[in-house]
Design goal:
Blueprint lengths: L1 H27 L13 E7 L6 H16 L4 E6 L10 H6 L5 E5 L22 H15 L7 E8 L3 E5 L13 E3 L3 H9 L2 E3 L3 H10 L4 E5 L2 H4 L8 E4 L8 E7 H6 L2 H35 L3 E4 L2 H24 L4 H17 L1
Parallel strand pairs: 1-2, 1-3, 6-7, 6-8, 9-11
Antiparallel strand pairs: 3-10, 4-10, 5-8, 5-9
Helix pairs in contact: 2-9, 4-9, 4-11, 5-10
Length: 352
């Protein structure tokens, strides 16, 4: 009897040990977080600085949905708009460090971090958002800048020409001198070159500043006059597109997260991103069209610059371009070649 009980106890102990070993073995076989085995959903986070109602955030959301659709639900992208996951100036580093898997923001928000890509924003006379977007992508593909090696670049996009919107009429370069203009970063350099007095402030502060006369004008793409209602606080829209600058924006992915994706899913990301370049360019141009219609309804006056004045303004901002080329050369970067390529592409666009 005792022997029988001993055998039973031994069998029970062996069974317990086997179950423990089995449990450990199974837990060791569980997929790691972020793994991309068959039948698993790959969940990604996407940080966007635009508010959810902005046309560019909507366009980006449509991109994410298209990725989900073409991967038949194998990829799920959770969007965090309005800087809710990482602020605009922290977005790029947030992607590098894995705070978010994907990110969209502007190179200009971290001046000096992207010394070659800053050349995309120069006042070279961009005619529209589609052209600016096409050129931005062509340049990053051609030059493959070292400063972007920490991420997987999916695509870029860029807004239409920055123009001058003013409470005072401006028809000549002489009338710009001393004008208090809302400007930051690159646009401050443009103001300085034109002889204006640059006043740094964020977009949300500009409407009230224009109303109260803290500033008399603002440099911005025309879509801003509707999007931020600033058209209500100005009287004149000066077509200074001859020196139209842009703001190039990136859509990038964490390098490690990209390398973990199966090849067929990487292919979907690449194909959809290629298609969405044009969609973002179209979205910028549509926003500019709506901005123009908005200020037209408000009966604001549009002031074109004469051919002679356009040349005067181009000459005035040339030092901004020269300064970029000089700084790039000091860093052994092909800044001069980049500027020449951009200008050649703009010339081609104008001749079509």
């Amino acid at each position: 009897m005792k022997a029988t009980r001993a055998v039973e106890r031994g069998a029970a102990w062996c069974l317990t040990v086997a179950m423990i070993i089995g449990t450990l073995g199974l837990s060791g076989c569980k997929p790691k977080e972020g793994a991309t085995g068959p039948g698993q959903t790959i969940t990604l986070t996407y940080s966007i600085f635009f508010p959810p109602t902005h046309i560019q955030c909507i366009t980006a959301t449509n991109w994410a949905h298209e990725i989900e659709k073409r991967t038949q639900g194998r990829v799920k992208i959770n969007i965090f708009p309005a800087g809710s996951l990482t602020k605009a100036d922290q977005c790029y580093e947030g992607v590098v460090n894995g705070v978010s898997d994907l990110g969209m923001s502007c190179f200009a928000y971290t001046r000096g971090r992207f010394p070659l890509m800053e050349g995309l924003d120069l006042p070279v006379g961009y005619p529209n958002g589609m052209t600016a977007t096409r050129i931005a992508n062509a340049m990053v593909e051609k030059y493959k800048p070292e400063e972007l090696k920490g991420v997987q670049v999916l695509y870029l996009h860029a807004h239409g020409p920055g123009i001058l919107a003013s409470k005072k009429p401006v028809r000549t370069l002489a009338e710009v001198k001393g004008l208090k203009v809302r400007a930051t970063g690159l646009s401050k350099m443009i103001c300085d070159a034109l002889g204006a007095t640059a006043v740094a402030m964020a977009q949300p502060e500009t409407y009230e500043a224009l109303q109260k006369g803290v500033v008399e004008a603002t440099l911005c793409p025309i879509e801003t006059l509707k999007g931020w209602k600033q058209g209500e606080a100005i009287q004149y829209v000066i077509d200074s597109s001859a020196i139209g600058y842009t703001t190039a924006m990136f859509v990038v992915m964490n390098k490690d997260k990209w390398s973990q994706l199966p090849a067929d899913i990487q292919k979907v990301f690449t194909e959809v991103s290629q298609e969405w370049k044009a969609k973002h360019g179209e979205a910028w141009d549509q926003a500019d069209k709506e901005g123009r219609e908005f200020v037209t309804q408000l009966k604001r006056e549009f002031i074109p610059l004469s051919a002679a004045e356009q040349e005067n303004w181009k000459t005035a901002v040339k030092p901004v371009l020269d300064a970029f080329v000089k700084q790039a050369k000091e860093k052994n970067l092909p800044g001069e070649a980049l500027v020449k390529d951009i200008q050649a592409e703009i010339s081609k666009a104008g001749s079509k």
